[in-house]
Amino acid sequence: MFPNLPDRKPTYSYKWEKYKGQDILPLWVADTEFGCAQPILDGLKSRVDHGILGYTLPSQYTPANEAIVSWCERQYGWSIDADWIVWTPGVVPAFNVASKAFGAGRILVQEPNYPPLRAAPGINDSQRIAIQTVIENGRWTLDFEQLEKEASHPDCHLMILCNPMNPVGSVMTQGELDKIAQICNQNGVLLCSDEIHCDLILEEGVSHIPASSHRELKDNSITLMAASKTFNVAGLGASFAIIPNEEIRRKFNKAAMGIVPWVNILGLVATEIAFTQCDEWREQQLNYLRSNRKFIVDGINDIPGLSVLSPEATFLAWVDASKLDAPSPQAWCEQRGVGPSPGSDFGSKDFFRINFGCSQDMLKEALYRLQKK
Ligand SMILES: Cc1ncc(COP(=O)(O)O)c(C=O)c1O
After folding, report:
1. Residue 293 sits in a domain of what CATH number?
2. pLDDT, tens digit (0-9, with 9 covering 90-100), for 195-206
3. pLDDT on residue 42
4. Measured in angstroms, how far is the CA atom of residue 371 from the centroid of ligand 1?
5. How many whole angstroms from its chain centre is CA 123?
6. Nearest ligand 1 atom, CA 29
7. 73 and 24, same structural domain?
8. What share of the chain in percent tops pLDDT 90?
9. Candidate from 29, 32, 86, 91 with most ligand 1 atoms within 8 A of CB, to mutate
């Protein structure tokens, strides 16, 4: 039955270690409090019971690749070839590899954004050009005028998109992806799309379109995906890039060679099972998250000085605290016993990000604490 909510305190949980010994509810780093689907746990146990955990050559691990191929077909109506898949031990290494291989000069990255995405250009000796995220018709989207202008710079060869957007929670529409495709193609800018949250669409009528499934982007894009967020297996270090174009794939693989380790065997097993045996668990989780989303959005919007738009996807809510009479919104939350992610890490100091992938009781307690005078 969903949700199963194990106690994470004694498990080296990054999320729970931060406020260890303090009465602060950790609602920050983006994993959930939900125990994994039983088929994943059973599959991992039986892999461990096999008794050998040696090197694994993922390209030959056909069932896991087949699982991705059929998942893309079922979820997105997207037919991919198994050999477009490049396994990576995380999405963060993957967008850094893309930056290293293709980013020399200026890299376009939307803002606010997941901190490691903001850091990627600098790590790879490139310059980060922040493309602003703006509210239009009650929804966060990209500043397309700015994107068009910056993409035309002669030193710009790469855009890293985060779609669904973390932290703002929007999912690029067909029209928005069309614009991105047109701008990237016109300017010789490769699109690397981090889609780690794409199987967590909460809004009815919204669907995710993988970048490389776009006809105009097939030969000018890298799509990064994983089962990690949706199925809460992020600690297993397994993700994959889908790269239809052979030359882009070759350059990506070359840049990773000798630096990026092979994918973790247990992560590989978990991904395969997540994509083949866990549909019902995912549905239950999505429904639970929809109800948490409504609860947190209504509750936050009732607090003077705070406001939030309902995210279309993810279990993350991006809270505007600019009208709060407090020098640090993060400190204001922590003083009340709630620990979100600081907006400054994402490039917006007047915001904070709340992870609502937790029990409804925990969320209720967090809101109660924030509502207290
Ligand atoms: C947008 C985005 N990309 C990547 C990651 C992490 O990816 P990985 O753990 O696979 O390196 C996160 C985790 O929060 C994320 O939100």
Report:
1. 3.90.1150.10
2. 999 999 999 999
3. 98
4. 30
5. 20
6. 14
7. no
8. 96
9. 91
Q: Which residues line ligand 1 (CB under 6 A)?
A: 30, 90-92, 114, 162, 166, 194, 196, 226, 228, 234, 239
Examine the domain organization and report whether 104 and 231 are in the same domain.
yes
Query: Ligand 1 center to residue 28 CA distance, Å?
Result: 13
The predicted-structure confidence for 59-81, as pLDDT tens digits, reads as follows: 666 899 999 999 999 999 999 99
The residue whose C-alpha atom lies closest to atom 7 belonging to ligand 1 is 91
Tell me how far apart the alpha carbons of residues 186 and 204 are, in angstroms, rounded to a whole number. 33
Q: Which atom of ligand 1 is nearest to the CA of 314?
A: 16
Mean confidence (pLDDT) of the chain: 97
Q: What is the pLDDT of residue 61?
A: 62
CA dist 302 and 177 (Å) reads 34
Distance, CA of 149 to CA of 152 (rounded, Å): 6
- How many Å lie between the centroid of ligand 1 and the Cα of residue 91? 6
- Residue 354 lies in domain: 14-37+279-371
Residue 338 included in any domain: yes
In 3D space, the residue among 356, 372, 346, 362 whose CA is nearest the CA of residue 9 turns out to be 362
Gap between the Cα atoms of 32 and 45, Å rounded:
21
